[in-house]
Amino acid sequence: MNWLQLVIADFKALLSDKDIVLTVFGGLLFYSVLYPLPYLHQVPTEQKIVVVDHDNSSLSRQLVRHADASPKIKIVSQVASINEAQQWIANGDAFGLLVIPEGFRRNLLLGKGATLSYGGDASYFLIYSAVAEGLVAAGMDASKQVQMIGLLARGENPQQIQQDLNSVNLNSVPAFNPSLGYTPYVVPGLFLLILHQTLLIGASILGAGQWRKQGYWQQVSPLALITARIAVFSLIYSFFSCFYLGYCYYFYGVSVQASLGQVLLFMVPFILSTAACGVALSCLFVRRDLPTQVLLLVSMPILFVSGFVWPLALIPEPLVQASQIIPAVPAIMGMLQLNQMGASWDAIMPMWLQMWGLFLLFSLLAYIGVRRRLFSKEGASA
Predict the structure, then answer these.
(1) Among residues 81, 125, 345, 358, which is most buried (max CB within 10 A)?
(2) Is residue 212 a contact partner of residue 286, using CB atoms and an 8 Å limit?
């Protein structure tokens, strides 16, 4: 059997295995829709809250109107007590509450200050953040209105009052995420992790199902089998990479700043090193169900040590250093810098070279593992 026949045989073995087809083809297509789905609206808006107004004054009603005008929140009801408001939240009819204390207007006009209480369901941090941000903005607006009334009553110049109350104006211009949404922030790194994990699972299932059986893989040398298997998975994942980084980026509105040539050049060692890692990992399994269980279990830790959803400074340094052996870690950080942040090729060169080094390392480990499997008594029997 020559090398081309071996590649064809590997393709047939892969396509005839329903578990691998479901993981590689079905999983990649399914995840391309499932994972970005919660973030399609980019940022949470119009979150429902209830109001407990113990003051019932003109200023408290103005505060409620300001809160309802905020794009972040929507007043759905005014209730008589905090317990009733909590019941609304428990039933899912609202996500937050605003409590205006008695004497709110009087205390502000006397310059004593007043405390607004607000809260929400912190189980959904995006919703809770939207509720808190909208209510804080409404409270600050009400506070400025009271300060303005007091200063005008003292005979202050209206123009000077405006300057004093708005002495600092922020002009926030996003550099790397123009929409300020979660889709352009989460999707780029997540897609690379999906490619990484599904490739490892597919390659591991294929190998784990073959080591205890007789087949074409025992008729060739370990080097030929490794190179053919890497070629097969690399070819398949080249197409899926184009789908993820091309069509899906366009469909979900992910900003792209790198050139097509740079992206393709960066993806080459990522796909090769991941494929080699998959072949090496397959030598550790002889049960087909274990690769999926183990690799899905470590997906979340890989997501965190990649550094784009959690600051690396808050992760133990030994863990960060150990994670550099995972191809997805330099790939995610390098691709985000290159494709989303507009970094130069020189800036991501160390990560590109790191992935080539991982390709050589895992190719060597794959050779050792496959040779051991093919020539062991366990592999020769059965």
Answers:
(1) 358
(2) yes
Neighbours of 234 (CB within 10 A): 17
> Is residue 381 pLDDT above 50, yes or no?
no
Q: DSSP labels for 320-365?
A: HHHGGGSTHHHHHHHHIIIIIS---HHHHHHHHHHHHHHHHHHHHH
Tell me the sheet residues that pair with 52.
79, 99
Q: How far is CA 182 from CA 38, 122, 252, 328, in A?
A: 9, 18, 11, 21
- List own/partner pairs for 107-111 with CB under 8 A and 24 or more apart: 108/59, 108/142, 108/143, 108/146, 109/146, 109/149, 109/150, 111/150
Distance CA 317, CA 315 (A): 6
pTM to 2 decimal places? 0.73
pLDDT tens string 324-341 = 999 999 999 999 888 888
Please state, in angstroms and rounded to a whole number, the distance separating the CA atoms of residues 132 and 167: 24
